[in-house]
Each structure stands twice: as C-alpha cells, then as structure tokens.
Amino acid sequence: MKLEQGMAAIVTGGASGLGRASAAGLAELGLKVAIFDINDEAGEQHAAAIGGTYHHVDITDEASAVEGFAAARAANGQERVTLHCAMTSKRGKTIGFDKATGGYKRLPTEDYAFGAEGILVASYRIASLSALGMANSDPVNEDGERGAITLTASVAAQDGQIGQVIYGSCKSGVNGLVLPMARDLMDLGIRVNSVMPGIFATPLMLGMKDRNPQMWDQLNASVPFPKRLGEPEEFASLICEIARNSYINGHQFRLDGAIRMPPK
C-alpha cells in the first residue's frame, strides 16, 4: 500500500515507547497520525510535535474507543494504517508462596480477567473498530486494499517466563487473532499482522540503566546480536514496512535480536 501524504493513521499507546516512535515514523512518511492514549500531557505534546492529533482513549472501554475513532476520523479522515500498542495487565505466578500464611495462594481469576481485557479483548476491540471503518471506505489501489492493521504481541507469547501467565498467554492470544481475522477481512482488502518485540529500550527499561547498571549490562549481553536492547525506531521501521508491503498479511513477526527468553 502506497503511504501517501495526508493518509490517516491511528496509533494506540502513541504517547510513549514503541507507539511514540511508530507515530513519529509514520508521520515522517507524510501520514496524519492520531494518537490514542490516556497520558494526556505526553500525548498532546507528541501529537503537536509530529503534526498529528491526540485523543484520550481508554482501550478497555468500548464507548471511549468508539468516540476516539469518530474523533480521529473527523479530524484526519478514515485511517488506512492502525497500530495497536497500548495495553494494561497484572502479573503473578499461577500458584505463589504467601508469606502472610506460610502456605500457597492462587493468582486470582479477577487478575487474569483484568489482563485478558487489557491485552486480548482490547486488541480485538481496536482492530475490529478500525476494520469496520476501513470496510466502509473505498479501496486505495488496484489490489482492492483498504488498510492495514498491526497488533503488538510480545516474545512472551512464545517464551512466557515465570510470573507471566497472564501476559504470555494473552499476548499469545493476540497472535491467535491474526490469521482468522486476516481471513475474515480478506474479501474487504484489509490486512492484519502482529509484531512480537523482544527487549526494547523504552523509558521503562531505560530507568534500569541508572538504578541497576549490572542488570542493564546483563540484559544487553543476553541478546545474541546485536548485543543491545532494541531501539524503538527499529520497531517503528518494521511497522512502516508492514504498512507499505501489501503482501505481508496474516503473519506474526519476532523482532528480538534472536533472543529466546529463559524461564526467569
């Protein structure tokens, strides 16, 4: 799909980290980017910096998401590129030791449901709402393409570590959405893919550099090659290529420097 000047895009979680870099990368290609986030100050600042728009959207709330899409389309037109980075979850072992009782305790079902809503259900919500808008728009090329949707999974989808039973399984579910959704949307010319980032130098990880330099060095050394954390711009580069290349469909990409995560 040719990414033309003024084409609309939506990036959830675009106020920070991988979403922020991707919003900037798409804007550099001439796209009008709508950032969905709940960090209003950072979101508004970044949107202004890249010539886009900011919309306060809670991805776990249906009405908030619907309103966000309507506002973004009113400002920029129908999005042709959607990247879903935002998520919320909890962590914990299935069964863990309870210091208070000296016995064992179970990870509450409510905690699991919270993560499933914040990762898996939200991914479906954003992807399906975007697909509906794309389906009701005209194709942009001779292939009949109407748009590209990219979801963010994680290497934890395949290498889930101790304490990641929620995160790992729900990110695996994100990958599980890709092929059936791509097939559901094939007659409409809408592509669906996902990316599984490894360890990236997001603000959360960069904070470790000063707090625990030894662990920081160990993390960098754990990546086979290149021996460093991924740069958010490298994630953004892949997002742009997925949007550009019309033959990329129904695929899950690992972007991880060949790392395979150990149990812990």
In short:
This is SDR family oxidoreductase. By secondary structure, the protein is of the alpha/beta class.
Characterization of this structure:
The chain has a single domain, classed as 3-Layer(aba) Sandwich (Rossmann fold). Helix 3 packs parallel to helix 4. The protein has a seven-stranded parallel beta sheet with strand order 3-2-1-4-7-8-9, with helices on both faces. It has a two-stranded antiparallel ribbon with strand order 5-6. It has 264 residues and is α/β, with parallel strands linked by helices. The chain starts with 7 loop residues before the first strand and ends in a 9-residue tail after the last strand. It has nine helices and nine strands.
The string of secondary-structure elements, in order, is EHEHEHEEEHEHHEHHHE
Give the helix/strand class: alpha/beta
Q: Could you please say which CATH topology applies here? A: Rossmann fold
Q: Uncertain spans, ≥5 residues at pLDDT below 50?
A: none
Task: From the alpha carbons, calculate the radius of gyration and give it in angstroms.
Answer: 19 Å
Q: Specify the helix fraction band.
A: 40-55%
Which sheet architecture does the biggest sheet show? 7 strands, parallel
Please list the strands of the largest sheet in the order they lie side by side. 3-2-1-4-7-8-9
Please state the oligomeric state of the protein chains shown: single chain
Keywords: Oxidoreductase
Protein name: SDR family oxidoreductase
Pfam families: adh_short_C2
Organism: Erythrobacter rubeus
Keywords:
264 residues; alpha/beta; Rossmann fold; 7-stranded parallel sheet; two-stranded antiparallel sheet; 9 helices; 18% strand; NAD(P)-bd_dom_sf; Sc_DH/Rdtase_CS; oxidoreductase; SDR family oxidoreductase
